[in-house]
């Protein structure tokens, strides 16, 4: 079974703090994704990576950066947390591109509260 | 604009009953459509994936249909169980953009004993 783990289930941070969210997958997947999920909105893509050290902006990259130094690990960084970044953050991975019908596997999510 | 709309937003049914969730999309070009189940506080889990040429796919008590002409999909749940209580999310992939997924906002299903 594919396993995608996220470093924290719940996180509380203060405005202006630098926040690191870690995601690890154990199935040697090429692609990894970071989404945020807010009530009443569909999942929105922040960044994705299709290979080590490669990253592409998604729909809402502002205020975020990412790092992929190893294939199994994809980190999301909030450079200076703001209250409007309070959200559920979901990491996903997939073996090949979604255009070919490959399933995304999601982690359990990190619920971030910025005070 | 590429969009995925789901209805109803929420649904309450009694255990043992059947239900059908709807998904309409205006995504073009279309590649494939997925249904995910998301339990409260958890990440989504894939139920089915359908490509353009498939019009029905089952996974246990879950049956998804796809009408590519009308750009509609449905997820039918048979003999519902308490564990079916979750949000169900419809996701469409854009053809030619392999990393682009358009997510619906989900239908929240509550199954009562």
Q: How many helices of chain A does DSSP assign?
A: 0
How far the N terminus sits from the C terminus of chain A, by CA atoms, comes to: 37 Å
What general outline of chain B do the C-alpha atoms trace?
globular
* Overall strand count of chain A: 11
Average pLDDT figure of chain B: 93
Give the oligomer, counting copies of the same chain as homo and different chains as hetero. Answer: heterodimer
What is the general shape of chain A? Answer: globular
**Biggest interface:** A-B, 29 and 28 residues
Percent helix among the residues of chain B?
under 10%
SSE run of chain B? EEEEEEEEEEE
Taking the sheet with the most strands of chain A, its summary is: 7 strands, mixed
Measured by DSSP, the beta-strand proportion of chain B falls in over 45%
Fraction of residues in β-strands of chain A = over 45%
Rg of chain A (CA only): 13 Å
Binned, the helix content of chain A reads: under 10%
List segments of chain B where confidence is low: pLDDT < 50 over at least 5 consecutive residues.
none
Low-confidence spans of chain A: none
Tally the helices of chain B: 0
